[in-house]
Design a protein that fits this description.
mainly alpha; globular; 11 helices
Length: about 240
């Protein structure tokens, strides 16, 4: 029972994000109706490099609709207990994130509503996603599962901004907050809060190493953690002998 209760926040987060992702998917299908323009597009036009912007918008929406649910599934115990499925799902997700989601998001950021402050927020989020994805892939290849988990938490946290930001916009609009200010607040607060929460969660669960890990992996990490002490002892031992 204590283990079940401890896992409730994680399960709640996954369920809420999956529901939010489903709502965003339903709302975003209109972007792919090439016969009509979505109200968001009409509001934004005209923009610089219109063809590039429209293509980036559709690429960004399509890649987000694929990458975010995959990231959530990769966090589930079910997929984590299947190394082959987890590995290939992670590779597909990484490719989509690095070569579709982030580049298209960077293009869109420069014409974001709210001006340069919002642009900076989007670029910061994109940098966290891209940087942590690369670090996470490298950590996985080195079998550093602690670092891999930490970086992937940051990726998922930043992707969750799509849901939390929309929820905040609805709340701020209900409170009749100025739309320009609301847009800035609804971006920066989720971006910074998500980064802080991801770091806190990864820090709290980084050590001790989970007992669910393979014994070889646990032994490797224990040796890695003790290696500085071994080096110090090897350095001090010759001097100790001289003093005898």
């Amino acid at each position: 029972m204590p283990r079940f209760l401890a896992g409730l926040p994680r399960r709640f987060f996954l369920v809420v994000m999956l529901l939010g992702s489903a709502v965003i998917t339903a709302e975003s299908l209109a972007y792919f109706d090439f016969g009509t323009l979505h109200p968001f597009v009409i509001e934004k036009l005209p923009v610089r490099f219109e063809t590039l912007w429209l293509a980036s918008l559709r690429i960004h929406v399509a890649s987000a609709l694929l990458a975010f649910p995959l990231c959530l599934l990769l966090m589930t115990r079910t997929l984590q207990r299947r190394p082959l499925g987890h590995r290939w799902s992670g590779r597909v997700t990484g490719l989509v994130v690095l070569f579709a989601l982030v580049p298209s998001g960077v293009v869109l950021a420069f014409d974001a509503k709210g001006g340069s402050v919002v642009t900076l927020g989007f670029l910061l989020s994109a940098a966290i996603v891209a940087g942590c994805t690369v670090m996470g892939v490298r950590a996985a290849r080195r079998r550093n599962l602690v670092l891999h988990r930490r970086t992937m938490l940051h990726v998922v946290a930043q992707m969750s901004v799509a849901v939390t930001s929309r929820a905040m916009l609805v709340g701020l609009d209900a409170w009749e907050i100025d739309p320009e200010l609301a847009y800035v607040v609804a971006l920066w607060v989720p971006v910074l809060a998500s980064a802080a929460v991801a770091e806190l969660v990864s820090w709290r669960s980084g050590f001790p190493v989970s007992s669910s890990l393979h014994p070889v992996e646990r032994f490797r990490r224990e040796i890695s953690a003790l290696s500085p002490l071994v080096r110090i002892r090897s350095f001090v031992r010759p001097f100790a002998r001289l003093g005898r």
